[in-house]
């Protein structure tokens, strides 16, 4: 019996297991859901066996599917390691990856990604530029950082922007706040209250840049370095905070505060990894971006890939 089994089939099954359903697996692999379904159907028809139960949530694999997953778990890590070894032999990868961030909540997803990267590229020196950076892209030009995590693309900068993911930003209110009955908040709702934020400039706050400034709304501000302190102030009715939904998720699960959508359409934040063009050709940078996208998509709530 001839075989049509390829590495891409094994990668598809691993993605399906990790993502939990066909749609998320297709997003993870950057293919359409129909293309992914067609690929799996071909494999099932060739081997005469279903690979997973179609109506199970999360996905549940059949004996045939589990057997192929066992093969994938054994082979794909060896393939990936061999590919990295060939890159090392051919190009050399000794270097460093110093990461500068402009968002206080970045560490929720950055640290897990860095842990995976260290295991794959142990010879690359990995570090975070200490402290919050108001101008992380400027550090690239000064050669004090190699990667800058930023929220906007500036076409005037001579850097490459590698898309990571986008996410919803919500307003956080006390349970007895006067606005808690509203379906969503608009710019004017912030005008009579205090906006509780991290100590960053206005142009680095999505709610200010995208919602308040266009509407001509100015609001009182109170700042804190700590997320837990921010949420405590919100719960005490000292003001309104805005955070990525995934950053507030644990507090919402504990019913500590209430989340409200910002504007009818919702407020969307985006993140990119910026680097100088000469670093973009390095294979370990491409892998860092891929790792960050995958781990964030799989582990954070309400995150979609850019």
Please give a handful of descriptors for the protein shown:
single chain; 12 helices; 306 residues; alpha/beta
Ends: how far apart?
41 Å
Structural class: alpha/beta
Low-pLDDT stretches are none
SSE order, one letter for each helix or strand: HHHEEHEHEHEEEHEHEHEHEEHHE
- Give me the number of helical elements: 12
Largest sheet: 11 strands, mixed
Count of individual beta strands: 13
| Helix content percent band | 40-55%
Please compute the radius of gyration using only Cα atoms: 22 Å
Overall shape: it is globular
Strand content: 15-25%
Mean pLDDT: 90
In terms of topology, how is this protein built?
Blueprint: H1 7-19, H2 22-29, H3 33-47, E1 52-53, E2 60-61, H4 63-91, E3 95-101, H5 107-120, E4 124-128, H6 136-141, E5 147-150, E6 160-173, E7 184-185, H7 187-191, E8 194-197, H8 206-212, E9 220-223, H9 227-235, E10 240-244, H10 245-253, E11 258-262, E12 267-275, H11 277-280, H12 283-299, E13 303-305
Parallel strand pairs: 3-4, 3-5, 7-11, 8-9, 8-10
Antiparallel strand pairs: 1-2, 5-12, 6-10, 6-11, 6-12, 6-13
Helix pairs in contact: 1-2, 1-4, 2-3, 5-12
